[in-house]
Amino acid sequence: MKEITRINHVGLRVRDLSISQAFYAKLGFEFIAGPIGPEPVAIMEHPSGVNINFILNTSDNAVSDNILMDHPEKHAGFTHIALEITDPDQVEQHLESLGIRITERVEFGGARFFFIRDPDGNVLEFHKPASQNES
């Protein structure tokens, strides 16, 4: 459909808004609003325009594995968010200075990307496309 212009936001179910808000603030996201609505939802947005809606209706407060990523059975569903970056070395150094552990690093076909987990086990990818290496 040509009417689709971009992803508007990503919804993440989280256990504790204050913990998630603090974590994503370290990545440069700014608190916009919430909790609001029937679910309820809180909203953070990065200056790049990436918007995350935190869904605050988790029924289990215990930290558990990510069913889509941490089990041998491969269930259908969204597995991660990929955030495009320009300088992987700088981003890695910043994350490490914040005590955020990088769980995997990959280089493939000129692209470079790595992964972290948020406090609820959601996977975030930081991705520098191969096309950014062309000059």
Automatic annotation (TrEMBL):
This is Glyoxalase family protein. InterPro entries: Glyas_Bleomycin-R_OHBP_Dase, Glyas_Fos-R_dOase_dom, Glyoxalase_1_CS, GlyoxalaseI/FosfomycinResist, VOC_core. Keywords: Metal-binding. Residues 6-129 form the VOC domain. Pfam families: Glyoxalase. GO terms for molecular function: lactoylglutathione lyase activity; metal ion binding. The keyword Metal-binding applies. SUPFAM superfamilies: Glyoxalase/Bleomycin resistance protein/Dihydroxybiphenyl dioxygenase. PANTHER family: GLYOXALASE FAMILY PROTEIN, METALLOTHIOL TRANSFERASE FOSB.
